[in-house]
Amino acid sequence: MSRLLALAAALVCLAGCSAPPVAPPEQPGGPFAMPEGYVELPGRSGTNCTDVPDRSLDPALGPHGADGRPDGDAVARIRREGLVVGVSQTASFFSKRDLVTGQLDGFEVDIANRIAAALLPGFVAGDERLRLVSLPTGRRLGALDTAENTQAKAANPTLSEVPRVDMVIADVSVTCGRVATYGLRYSKPYLATNSGLLVRQGVDGVKTPDDLGGRKVCSGGQTTNSEEMIDTRARQVQADQPALIPVAVADTSDCLMLLQRGLVDAIYTDVLILHGFRDQDPGTVLLDYHDEGQGKAAVAVSNKHDDLVRFVNSVLDDMRRDGSLQRGYDTWFKDVPATHRRALPNDPYQG
User: Mapping DSSP to helix (H, G, I), strand (E, B) and coil, where does residue 322 land?
Assistant: First the structure.
């Protein structure tokens, strides 16, 4: 009897029950939320300009202290209170946190330590008077104490969460648009580089951004790289060619995660950064391509603090003279091929 009842129940279900819907396949690696700041860029939002501020303040000018270095209110305050430097924590070879020790190290961390040693009497490695603050790529320059940043925070309360720093050493490209937007001054550049392309294995037929029509290309938000991809798309549209899709994220390192999950097809950023990404994931392919221009990176400081800019320049000049800047570059980027290396800049100062 029980068998007859079970058979009857099965027949009823076949007649009136429907099978549960099949769940859509998950993204590789399981459920995934897009990282902070993810956006497909509609168009250029930066400041258009042509005069790149490539000449910094001469450390030989202005007031000097007993140590013979530039002096002023900002320098005096830092000597009393300590130095706060905005850096990346995810850029291999530049500034990356060791997951075992928790310490930051890299080419730019070395520069920060050298500046701190000149500013803070008796400074030694690990001195608490130097604070290295990790900043996402897109918000790093908003951490400087400028009138422009204060106005931006008043208009957008979410920006008030960005910490305040004395300087930013985070592969900041020298552009006039950033001077106008953030109210900053640059030190003398300490690095020259080009932008490049990193793709997943299996993305074939790509040699330059022009070959990425219809594909998503990721860069850090509010960077020159994302603006260059917007310009590339505009040029492709004007030429009636398949256009790439620029994507921006809050921190450039998020691009690698998106690439690994197949959510973007390429990363466009500083080629030295890309070498670090490839080092993390050998399954990626760093193309021979690099852009035709040459970018320069410098320390970014508030335009309120000319004395601090001059002080930083005096330290960078010392590092050029004693060879430590070149040695640091050669050490951290020793595995970068010659095609992706550039001579360190030594630009003249303002007259």
Answer: coil
**Identical fold, 73-192+295-340 and 195-290:** yes
CATH number of this structure's domain 195-290: 3.40.190.10
**Six-digit token pair at 101?**
């020790």
Total H helices, total E strands in the chain = 10, 16
Helices (H), 156-281: 176-182, 224-238, 254-260, 271-280
CB atoms within 10 A of CB 47: 13
> In tens digits, what is the pLDDT along the chain, a chain of 351 residues?
444 434 344 333 433 333 333 333 334 444 456 766 677 766 554 445 555 676 899 999 999 999 999 999 999 999 999 999 999 988 999 999 888 888 899 999 999 999 999 999 999 988 999 999 999 888 899 999 999 999 988 888 877 777 899 999 999 999 888 898 999 999 999 999 999 999 988 888 999 999 999 999 999 888 889 889 999 999 999 999 999 999 999 889 999 999 999 999 999 999 999 999 999 999 899 998 888 777 899 999 999 999 999 999 999 999 999 999 999 999 999 999 988 999 999 999 985
CATH 3.40.190.10 fits domain 73-192+295-340:
yes
Q: pTM higher than 0.70, yes or no?
A: yes
